[in-house]
Amino acid sequence: MFREKMHFIFNGQRSTDFGIINCAVDDGLFREEFLSNRSINELSVAGADTPYFEGVKREPRQLKLRFWMSESWDEKKINEIAEWLDVNYYQPLSFMPEDYVYYCIPVDVTEIVHNGLKDGYLELSMRCDSPYKYSPITTVHQKVEDYKTIEIKNTGRIKITPEITIVKKGDGDISLSNLSNFNGKPFTLTNLEDGETIIIDGEYETIQSDRYGNLRYENCNEEYLWLRYGVNRIKIEGSCQINFTYQCTHN
Q: What is the pLDDT of residue 72?
């Protein structure tokens, strides 16, 4: 919930830098989007009254915001605010104290509502890049000698694939197994070199080596690691330094 939070950060800058605060101007009650909009995918068949259900398509979130300008404004101040908000790609938006992050961009009509005396508020819609909101970025650092089992907690109810950075210690193989995914297969990388750094992005299924570029695919079984909701017990086999970087995803 963000309506009751006065301050926020967008595109790396704080709202307090521009003298504006998050506000509500309706009947004193806060209205929040509970879930993202969704549509039903279905196929109508001739002669059948009941369509064939094919699934649900979730729409990206859209946040309707009002920002009160706590200081009297002038053209210079308005231009600064416009430059701050006028972005060409999704930027992080979080409300303080920070709990969730939205990746969004202003869309539709942006209006300034004022009384003619340089007092008023800014009204705009922010379209998110997905139906979800995210926890702040978390990184888990581990140093592994031969093998180790660690726990990583996914507080979101949607499974996620972390970005994994491995610095190999000694020549050899790396294997990662999520023991909490009972049907999951281990992710393996073979024939790595001492000191080689590998970055694995499971969401986009990319593997980059600081020595061989993207040529390590032939050493990989492409069973990318993912984290289920709750506690995940990750078994790491092979000496290395390893980082797991992820954001928990929430409805």
A: 67
